[in-house]
Amino acid sequence: MELSDADLIARVLVDDDQHAFGELVRRHQSSVRGLLRQLTRTDIALADDLAQETFVRAYKNIRSFRGDARFSTWLYRIAYNCFREDARRRKELVGVDEEQLQAQHDPQTVDAGLRHDLMHALSLLPLHERTAVVLCCQNGLSHDEAARVLDIPLGTVKTNVLRGREKLKRTLAAWGPN
Amino acid sequence: MNAMTDDETLDRQLREAIPYIDDDGFTARVMVRLPAARREPRWVRAMILIGLTALGSGVAYLLSGGGRFVREGMLQLSNFPIWMLLVFAFGCGLVIGAFAVIVAIRKTPEVRDLARLRF
Question: 0.80 exceeded by the pTM?
Answer without folding.
Answer: no
